[in-house]
């Protein structure tokens, strides 16, 4: 089941929310747990067993880690065991084919293997459960003794498929006690509609435009830049749209999830971009990989190593393909360049020029992300800079620029905070007008879902 479907919006969600608000508070975790299993099993009936195993296993390991608090050696061994099991499952389903193909490419020994479908949200709930164990180990939290409460956290459907990576520490109290009321429900509904509109009205149309551009065997320089601008906007509205919907659903259920995006395309440096993009993943790698490796409180050589390790792993987390590793290392090198070479220079530049530099760097990065084969990657990067391009500009480029102009203008405005700040003021001054706008966005989104083919969320496959 997915958020951007007629069935979810008009069948599952209203029925579930009606029951959720009617049952006593002490039964809401049970209802949320069962509803999450139904939500997940709707599209992954077999892999729901894997999700349940993850919940049971990590619940038990959490209690063991706390029980062994005064036995450091045994506690550490149990943590290592839990990490091996969690990552072993992730590697098997997500990376085993990639590892076998890489081994075959190096040795010439090719091992045939069946293609396994990736369980939806596996990377997200694996990292979510690992953060729970890590926080117990460092005594940030105490282990949850009630299995139902932990299972509710582990399987909750708003963030099951594509995050954000919510940490147990952030919602620990809300799992036990939370308030649900019409005001919170209204705020969540508004955020859900905003995310749905981002996905359906912007990201899906940008996706169709980008697919058309990539279908051209020969590109002009201008076509290549229009194409990667299209993907840059598409992935933002697709993923931030999902995050908005997840956070909105959380509010409807009485939870306050931390934001996952903070207008990343207004950043004035690459380091600022990564403080604003996929915030939950960036903070996860910072707290559980970068800082334990020593962070920046080590020698320069080890600091460089730490950054490159974190970013190689960040890239690999996104997919079982070398282009994602290259994408991660590309950002690692950019961050090192900013830290050790460009830091003082960037500070002296005007903000608009720093934003332009950041956007060009990010757009080039999305080429590494979107082109999964080395040949396609090399071809597209070359076309951006005139290598192998048919010309600087051609009629194809002008066609895409003309047909996508209004979409580009709306997208550029919508990825900046000004539009939303005006909307917030409208809510305060004229709530009826804000309600009308939300109803129009919902109606347009539903109409688009009815008359166009379904387009999955990009990050659901990661």
UniProtKB/TrEMBL annotation:
It is found in: Cell membrane. It comes from the Bacteria. It is a multi-pass membrane protein. InterPro entries: Ac/AlaTfrase_AlgI/DltB (IPR024194), AlgI (IPR028362), MB_O-acyltransferase (IPR051085), MBOAT_fam (IPR004299). Keywords: Acyltransferase, Cell membrane, Membrane, Transferase, Transmembrane, Transmembrane helix. The chain crosses the membrane at residues 6-23, 30-57, 77-96, 307-331, 351-369, 376-393, 399-420, 432-451. PANTHER family: ACYLTRANSFERASE, PROTEIN-CYSTEINE N-PALMITOYLTRANSFERASE RASP. Belongs to the membrane-bound acyltransferase family. This is MBOAT family protein. It comes from Blautia wexlerae.
């Amino acid at each position: 089941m997915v958020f951007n479907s007629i069935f979810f919006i008009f069948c599952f969600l209203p029925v579930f929310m009606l029951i959720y608000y009617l049952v006593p508070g002490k039964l809401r975790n049970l209802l949320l747990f069962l509803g999450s299993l139904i939500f997940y099993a709707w599209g992954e009936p077999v892999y729901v067993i894997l999700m349940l195993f993850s919940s049971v296993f990590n619940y038990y390991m959490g209690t063991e880690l706390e029980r062994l608090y005064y036995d450091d050696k045994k506690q550490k061994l149990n943590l290592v065991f839990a990490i091996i099991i969690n990552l072993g499952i992730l590697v098997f389903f997500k990376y085993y084919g990639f590892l076998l193909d890489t081994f075959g490419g190096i040795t010439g020994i090719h091992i045939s293997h069946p293609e396994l479908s990736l369980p939806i949200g596996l990377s997200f709930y694996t990292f979510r459960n690992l953060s729970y164990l890590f926080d117990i180990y460092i005594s940030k939290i105490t282990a949850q003794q009630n299995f139902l409460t932990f299972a509710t956290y582990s399987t909750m459907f708003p963030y099951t498929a594509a995050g954000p990576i919510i940490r147990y520490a952030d919602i620990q109290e809300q799992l036990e006690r939370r308030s649900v009321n019409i005001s919170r429900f209204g705020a969540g509904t508004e955020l859900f509609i905003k995310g749905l509109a981002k996905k359906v009205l912007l990201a899906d149309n940008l996706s169709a435009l980008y697919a058309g551009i990539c279908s051209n065997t020969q590109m002009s320089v201008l076509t290549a830049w229009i194409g990667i601008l299209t993907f840059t906007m598409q992935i933002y509205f697709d993923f931030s749209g999902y995050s908005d919907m997840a956070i909105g659903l959380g509010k409807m259920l009485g939870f306050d999830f931390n934001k996952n995006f903070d207008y990343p395309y207004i950043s004035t440096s690459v380091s600022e971009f990564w403080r604003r993009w996929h915030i939950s993943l960036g903070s996860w790698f910072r707290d559980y990989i970068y800082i334990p490796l020593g962070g920046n409180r080590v020698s320069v050589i080890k600091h460089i190593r730490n950054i490159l390790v974190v970013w190689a792993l960040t890239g690999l987390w996104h997919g079982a393909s070398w282009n994602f590793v290259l994408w991660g290392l590309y950002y690692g090198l950019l961050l090192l360049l900013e830290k050790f070479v460009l830091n003082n220079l960037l500070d002296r530049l005007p903000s608009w020029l720093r934003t332009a530099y950041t956007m060009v760097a990010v757009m080039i990065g999305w080429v590494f992300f979107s082109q999964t084969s080395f040949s396609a990657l090399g071809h597209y990067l070359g076309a951006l800079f005139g290598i192998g391009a048919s010309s600087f500009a051609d009629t194809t480029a002008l066609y895409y620029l003309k047909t996508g102009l209004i979409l580009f203008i709306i997208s550029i405005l919508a990825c900046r905070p000004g539009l939303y700040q005006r909307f917030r003021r409208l809510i305060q001054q004229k709530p009826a007008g804000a309600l009308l706008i939300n109803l129009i966005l919902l109606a347009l989104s539903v109409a688009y879902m009815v008359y166009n083919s379904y387009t999955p969320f990009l990050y659901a496959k990661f």
